Amino acid sequence: MKRTEIAPGVHLSWDPAPKFNRCRISLHFAFPAKRETATAHALLPLVMERGYADCPDMTQMTKKLARLYGADLTVDARPLGANHNLCVSATGIKNRFALEGEDLTREYAALALGTAFHPAFSGGVFDPEAVAIEKQMLRKSLEDEVNEKRIYCQRQANREFFGASPAGIRQEGYLEEVDGLTPETLTAAYREMLETAQIELLILAAVRQRPGRHAGAAGGAGRGGPPPGAAVRKSGDAPAGAVRKTECFDTVQAKLCMLFTLGEPMQPDQMAAVRLAMALYGGSVTSRLFLNVRERDHLCYYCSSSFQSFTGSMAVNSGVEHADAARAEQAILKELDDLRHGPITEEELEDCRLSLLSGMAGIEDSLGGIETWYYMEVLRGGAVQTPDEARAALRAVTREDVRTILRQLTLSVSYLLTREEGPAHV
Questions:
Q1: 12 near 209, Cβ under 8 Å?
Q2: Among 26, 49, 136, 332, whose CB has the most other CB atoms within 10 angstroms?
C-alpha cells in the first residue's frame, strides 16, 4: 500500500491487489465529533446514499448501479474515539470483465467522488423529501437502540466515563433532536465536514485515475483539521475510583459492562501486545473469561473482552442471571488479576497466539479487509504496519508484554442493566 499526500489534509493510498476480480474506491472523512452537530452528522450518510447531483434519486441510482454490472455504493458512518468517520465506497468488477470495453474504474471514481462532493441539492440544500424520509429511518434506529441491551449497556458505560468530552458524544445521534433537523441544518453539517475533515482516498485493485473536477470540488476540505490519529486516540480523564451505575429493565437476562481504561493514549507499538492480551483474557474461546467464568463457574451466558485502541479502553460484556451480577463482576476481576500476577502456561499463550495469527491470515483475502486494516493503521498514527509486519510483531509478544498491558488497565465504570434495584452491585 503506497500513501502520498495529494493536497493539504488529503492523502491517497493505492494497492494494485492484482489477485482480485473486483476493485474498490473509497473516501474516508475523519473529523472531530461535536455535540451540537452529532445528530445531523448521523443523518448525513443516510441522505447522501440516496443519490448525488448527476443521479439525484434512488430509482436512477439503482439503474446506474445495474448498468455497471451490479456495482455497489455505500455511505456509512462510525464513531472512532473522539472523531467521526464518514466513508463513501464504490465497488465493482474490473475493467477487463466489461463486455463492451467500458472504463468501469472511471465510472466508480465518478460515482464515489460525485456522492462525496456533489450531493443532490434542491435550492442549495439537501432535498427536503429525502431528508424527511431518512429522518424516519434514523428515529427508528435510535428508538431500537435500547432494545439491543448488550449494545445499549456498553454505550452507556462509555458515555458515563467520557461524559461531555468528544469521545462521550452519541455519534449515533440524539432521538429528541431528530424532528428538529432540517435540510438547512443538514447542509451546514455537510459543509462543516468538508471544511474540517482529514480525507483518505483509498484505491484498491484498480488503476489510479488522475483527479478531475470531482476531486477539485472539495475546495478547502481537510484544511485546518487535526491529524486523525491525534484526535481519535485522546481519552478523557478517569474518575477517582470506579463508577457503578444500575438501570432497571424488565428483562429475562441482566447485562453487565465493565469499562477499563489505560489512563493515557495507547501507543501504536503496543498493538501486538494488546491483541494477545485480549485473546488471553476474554477475546477467544480459549480465554480465561470463556473457560472459567462462563464454562467452569456457569456465572454468565456470555462473557468477552474487547479493546478500543482509539480511546485506550477495554470493555468486558456479559449476560448474567440477575442474582449473579455481583458474583460475575468479582469473577471477572479475579481472572484479570490472575493474568496480571499468576502463571500463564505456554499452551494457553500459544493457543491464543495461533488463533490470532489464523484470523489475521485472512486480512488480505478481501478488499474490505485490506481497506479496514490500512485505514485503522493510518488513524492510530505512527508507522503504518503491513499485515505481515503485524503478524511478526504478534509472534514476538511475551508473557511480560501481556502483563504490562493488563496491569495498566483500571476499572473505571461498571454498568448494570437489571430488573430492580438491589444488592446486584457491590
A1: no
A2: 332
